[in-house]
Amino acid sequence: MAEQAQFEELARQLSAVGAVKRDMGRILPPDCPAGSAAVLTLLGRHGDMRMSKLAELLAVDMSVTSRHVAHVAARGWIERHPDPADKRSRILRLTPAGLEQLDELSRRTTHLLAERLADWTDDEVGQLIRLMTRLRESFGDCRSTAFRLPATVAAPVAEETTRTPAST
């Protein structure tokens, strides 16, 4: 098992992934924010699905999913059809315009990654893919289990003081 210092460094490096994601978000078309891109990507990868399945894959609640779906539907990128198994539910499906938008997103993302990782070997890119896949699998559905501190890690205790806070 890795040492504590390695886990601390990993935590620092993972926080830097946010900068990478922000940079990737900057290449998205103005009318396709990250949430909409995620909806299109998941429908492209998994095919037609109910909104509840999409919410599960996005790992967000139904109200957030509904906003993303409304955004992509208003642009004609998806259609919502009644679910034959449950008329109260809707099946989400990419439209031809949605497939075109998904292709554009893929082109932009692939171009950015190819540009930024131009000095990486194929083996290094493959290794990163394998390790990130394994990391994601290790976390599974992040909503399913609560994080618990081990018994050996004490929660910080507030220090008692007789001082009054400084006025602002």
Ordered list of secondary-structure elements with their pairings:
Layout: H1 4-26, H2 34-46, E1 49-50, H3 51-58, H4 62-74, E2 78-83, E3 86-94, H5 96-116, H6 122-139
Antiparallel strand pairs: 1-3, 2-3
Helix pairs in contact: 2-4, 2-5, 3-4
Search tags:
3 strands; single chain; 10% strand; 168 residues; mainly alpha
Textual characterization of the structure:
The chain has six helices and three strands, in the order ααβααββαα. The chain has helices at 4-26, 34-46, 51-58, 62-74, 96-116, 122-139, and strands at 49-50, 78-83, 86-94. β2 and β3 (86-94) form a beta hairpin. It is globular. Residues 158-165 have low confidence and may be disordered.
Can you count the helices? 6
Helical content stands at 55-70%
Reading the helices and strands in chain order gives HHEHHEEHH
The largest β sheet comes out as: 3 strands, antiparallel
Helix/strand class: mainly alpha
Low-pLDDT regions: 158-165
Radius of gyration: 21 Å
Approximate shape: globular
Mean pLDDT: 87
- In the sheet with the most strands, the strands line up as 1-3-2
- Distance between the terminal alpha carbons, to the nearest Å? 48 Å
Number of strands: 3
